[in-house]
């Protein structure tokens, strides 16, 4: 009986492979639209019931989200909670942060290993006041011109604060998409141009925020680098690697 389950898993995987090949073609029609919608629907539905709770996810304040993105860069989210709450409480807007004592901020951040972020944040506040009238710009290039803001942080800010349909690709979300879509691991996900382009066509026009956060949380909960928990993952039926792994495991039962 167990053996009879395996072919269906492999068959589904083959269908996913042939469908994903359409992702490199434009416009978003046919199979490509179908797999994008199915993947997005699954991720968004799972996130709304199971997503992690962090304070920066409960706000739409662009400046607070920008602060969070600066802090989150290459840093685990739980370590960011305390400094984020401290900053948005003490310096709720660019004008107040621009007057902050940089040396004092550095000392506060030192135990967290985030000393340089203090300088970036204060410089960023000055630039917002000088060049953008104290408002977080809604243009990708303008955001990237700010100190400490790269492409990832800029796209994350636009998506989280303004609901722009942009991909947010780090190692966690990139790993989920690579496995789900059967893409090769060609190095750091945030530098993988092909992955980023494909991700941009998978992000739904509706609920891009929930989709991107869902990918991050699925990566943290199930899609681990070395020992992914494929059988428990909500994307199992939408994932090429997961479907193949499930088929092999069923054959071994």
Characterization of the model:
It is elongated and about 60 Å long. The chain starts with a helix and ends with a helix. It contains 13 helices and no strands. α1 packs antiparallel against α13 and α3 runs antiparallel to α9. It has two domains: 138 residues, Endonuclease Iii, domain 2; 108 residues, Hypothetical protein, domain 2 (Endonuclease III, domain 1), CATH 1.10.340.30. The protein has 253 residues and is mainly alpha-helical.
Layout of helices and strands, plus pairs?
Elements: H1 2-20, H2 30-50, H3 62-72, H4 77-90, H5 94-98, H6 102-109, H7 115-132, H8 140-144, H9 151-162, H10 171-181, H11 193-202, H12 208-221, H13 240-252
Can you describe this structure in just a few lines?
By secondary structure, this protein is an all-alpha fold. Helices cover 64% and strands 0% of the residues. Helix 3 runs antiparallel to helix 9, helix 6 packs across helix 7 and helix 10 packs across helix 12.
CATH class category label of the largest domain: Mainly Alpha
Helix segment tally: 13
What structural category do the secondary elements indicate?
mainly alpha
Number of domains: 2
Write down the overall mean pLDDT: 85
Number of strands: 0
N- and C-termini, Cα separation: 9 Å
N to C succession of SSEs: HHHHHHHHHHHHH
Taken as a percent bin, the fraction of beta residues is under 5%
Low-confidence stretches: 1-22, 24-30
**Do you know the CATH architecture of the largest domain?**
Orthogonal Bundle
What is the radius of gyration?
Answer: 20 Å
Which fold name is given in CATH as the topology of the largest domain? Endonuclease Iii, domain 2
Helix fraction, binned, reads 55-70%
Quick one: overall form?
elongated
Largest sheet composition: none
The CATH homologous superfamily of the largest domain is called Helix-hairpin-Helix base-excision DNA repair enzymes (C-terminal)
């Amino acid at each position: 009986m167990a053996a009879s389950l395996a072919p269906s898993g492999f068959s589904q995987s083959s269908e996913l492979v042939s469908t994903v090949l359409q992702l490199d073609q434009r416009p978003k029609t046919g199979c490509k639209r179908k797999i994008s919608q199915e993947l997005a629907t699954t991720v968004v539905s799972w996130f709304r019931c199971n997503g992690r709770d962090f304070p920066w996810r409960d706000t739409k304040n662009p400046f607070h989200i920008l602060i969070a993105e600066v802090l989150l860069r290459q840093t685990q989210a739980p370590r960011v909670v305390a400094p984020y709450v401290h900053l948005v409480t003490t310096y709720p807007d660019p004008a107040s942060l621009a007057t902050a004592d940089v040396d004092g901020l550095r000392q506060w951040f030192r135990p967290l290993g985030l000393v340089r972020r203090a300088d970036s944040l204060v410089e960023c506040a000055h630039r917002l006041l000088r060049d953008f009238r104290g408002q977080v710009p809604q243009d990708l290039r303008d955001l990237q011109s700010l100190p400490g803001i790269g492409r990832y942080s800029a796209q994350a800010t636009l998506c989280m604060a303004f609901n722009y349909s942009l991909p947010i690709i780090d190692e966690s979300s990139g790993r989920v998409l690579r496995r789900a879509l059967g893409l090769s691991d060609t190095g750091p996900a945030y530098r993988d141009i092909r992955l980023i382009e494909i991700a941009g066509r998978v992000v739904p026009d509706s609920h891009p925020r929930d989709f991107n956060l869902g990918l991050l949380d699925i990566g943290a909960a199930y899609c681990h680098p070395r020992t992914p928990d494929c059988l428990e993952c909500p994307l199992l039926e939408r994932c090429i690697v997961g479907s193949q792994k499930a088929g092999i495991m069923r054959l071994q039962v």
